[in-house]
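Dear Dr. V.,

Thank you for agreeing to look over these. As mentioned in my earlier message, I'm a first-year student in the group and I'm still getting used to reading structure tokens, so any feedback on how I've presented them would be very welcome. I ran two proteins. I've put each sequence directly above its structure. The first is here:
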Amino acid sequence: MQSNNGGLFCGKLALVKTSWTPLIPGRRFYACLTKDSICGFIGWVDLPMCARSKTIILGLLININTLEERCNGLVRSINMLQEQCNGLLSRNNMLDARCDALKDEGFKLKMYLCASWFMFVIVIFSI
């Protein structure tokens, strides 16, 4: 393995990473574990890919990114619909409470009407 800084290594184990750049998608390489290390790039793990493999991997990456964006958009839409649903449920609960209050008020008015007719009948027949 060779370093890009003239062969200087820090002596620590290298981590195997994968490149996802458009020029070298999917190619694995060794990199120093130390952040901001003088080692930098250490070497390739595997052989270079053919042009067809690069094209296929890039197409798959684009498809994955597109699907992730669509999925994120759908999640945002679901969250927005959930908020609207919660608002509608709240409004429905408020309207149910108002409806119950109006039913109670209607029952009281019917009772007053019946009582007033009853009193009217008593007054008429007592004369």
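The second protein is here, in the same arrangement:
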Amino acid sequence: MDDGRPIFQQIAEQLEARILDGSLPEESQVPSINELAAFHRINPATALKGVNRLVDEGTLYKRRGIGMFVSEGARARLLAARRETFRAQHVRPLVERAATLGLSPAQLADMIRKEAGE
């Protein structure tokens, strides 16, 4: 919890990672704000800010008086968003760099298949 990014953002990303890896399945209850705050030794308001970010995005929802839960379809939405980020940050620059080297898309695909061990 000290990589220079805001702590609330790290809390949200850790919950997203648990949703993606299946340890927090859809419709399961997430740790309470107080549990998150105690575990990470942070102010509950900071934990709440991270959780509320996920509520605002539709990844989590509140059941009044019960707690926070993972929304239906949350994992699929997170995967789609992560894949789009991956494409924008890695694939697009790779394709652009390959073009400057005179590599066709087919040649680039062949290189990727070889690297993947296919």
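From my reading of the second output: The first strand starts at residue 60 and ends at 63. The chain has a mean pLDDT of 95. Does that match how you would interpret it?

Kind regards,
E.
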